[in-house]
Amino acid sequence: MSGKSAFIGEMGITKLECMERIEFKWTDGGDESFRQFYIETENYYSQIVGGVKKRAGFVPYNLSDTISDVLIAYIDGKPVGCAGLKKYSDTDVEIKRVWVEPESRGQKIASRMLNLIEEKARQMNYKRAILQTRPIMMDAVKLYENRGYSLIDNYPPYDKLEGAICMALVL
Question: Stretch 91-101: mean pLDDT, rounded?
Fold first, then answer.
């Protein structure tokens, strides 16, 4: 951080102070905060692709209650982000629903969640983390690339869904 402090909101809290107040808690796809994030992300994804009909094929593969391991990020007790793990095969785990609320971005919350998600995947003896995103989500693609994820051939069911790209990281 430079000599100037970046302020968060109206409270005069520096980014460093805010990062120190971030807590992460493990839960599952049935968690109420995660369900709220699910609704918010569904609305966001539909908006960026031009409507619900354009992503109808994706919805059945992204239901919140099918995601077994969920990480929620909190600042001062308020949920501000999430990420999930879903078994894909004996060797691959799928990363789902990486999301940080717009007002909480810029604090490396997504990177910190991915650190924890990837470590949990290793502890669960997965060999590879896979994920699906869209090229239009440039910030997400850049985040994954910077972490060492590479483009792979789209895996089922995304191999049949237009607009998807898939990435993987060897754990």
Answer: 95
Strands 69-75, 165-170: parallel, antiparallel or unpaired by DSSP? unpaired
Structure tokens at 142: 């850049």
Q: Note the pTM of the prediction, 2 decimals.
A: 0.81
Binning pLDDT at 50, 70 and 90, where does residue 42 land? Answer: confident
167's CB contacts (< 8 A; 6+ apart) are 130, 131, 132, 133, 141, 144, 145, 149, 150, 151, 152
Tell me the C-alpha distance between 82 and 90, whole Å. 24
Task: Output phi, psi for 12, to 5 deg.
Answer: 70, 35
Residues in contact with 107: Cβ distance below 8 Å, sequence separation at least 6, in sequence order: 8, 15, 18, 19, 22
- In terms of Cβ atoms closer than 10 Å to its own Cβ (0-12, 13-18, 19+), residue 139 is exposed
pLDDT digit string, tens, across residues 78-87: 999 999 999 9
Question: CA geometry: angle at 32 spanning 73 and 17, to 5°?
Answer: 20
Whether the predicted pLDDT of 45 surpasses 80: no
Q: Give the C-alpha distances (Å, rounded to integers) separating 161 from 29, 46, 117, 139, 158.
A: 24, 15, 26, 21, 5
DSSP 160: G
